[in-house]
Amino acid sequence: MDSAIWTEKYRPKDFSEIKGQKEIVKRIKAFVEQQNIPHLLFAGPAGVGKTTLALLIAKNLFGDSWHQNYMDLNASDERGIDVIRIKVKDFARTKAIGNVPYKIIFLDECDALTREAQQALRRTMENYTQNCRFILSANYSSKIIDPIQSRCAMFRFKPLDKKEIFAIIESIEKEEKIKINEKAKEALYIISEGDARRINNVLQSCAAISKDINEEIVYSMASVAKPKEIDEVLKLALQNKFIDARSKLMDVMLNYGLSGVDIIKQIQQEILNLGIDNEKKMLLMEKCGEIEFRLTEGSDEFIQLEALLSQFALYGSKK
Questions:
Q1: What's the pLDDT tens digit per position in 169-186?
Q2: Cα–Cα distance between 237 and 308 in angstroms, integer?
């Protein structure tokens, strides 16, 4: 099954099915029941229900005519001022079909809009409030200019917790008639980082390989190293076995096809589980931050990761 179709299949069909955002859903539902929606700004990480909630608002307000009254734009693809001046304005200036007196424009990833486009959007929101309501979705609300933030009711979404992730996994397991063992569920929770969309995508890939899903399949499909393997690398470095730690790290990166930034994130998570004192953990965290910055600036990833391992070896050799 195509990944978009799979994602759509498990998209919540009702407000009650949205996981982890109970207070937000309760307030939005009240707006919909009164047919009185302000401009909305949904802020939060990916895969936690922002787009789904916008769709449910449109479907509950407009019923069968929701397609004619709802416009969905991804601002990261079309982020220039012309999109706001032409596409958005043309849609906003026409009246809605049906009993609801306004249309809805959903702007996904609107923190990717240029500053000029955001200024144009601000004016459009002012001028067409009678005909149109805007729902803006952003990963980082701080990248949205203050005049837009002040015009919107802000809702901050949070990553899904373990219980909610497990509920999604068990629902897919039952529907697709696959078997997922407990270690695999734990692995899915770790790699998802509270992102339901990532769970869907990884499980679809796993189900294509086997109906009996275990930890090995999950980590290989997600292109994430097992925490145990990263832990071995760090322990070798702390024992001053620098060459062995380096070889093991290179094997892990090649086997899973990981980049330097990917591996740094996993190292940072595993530092917390090491049996060393808190001061050393803090110093090593600081080194991770420094190396990650160098990698994003374009430094050679292998040299930088070797430099990080050398720091682990030096701290491990200190009494």
A1: 888 888 888 898 888 898
A2: 10
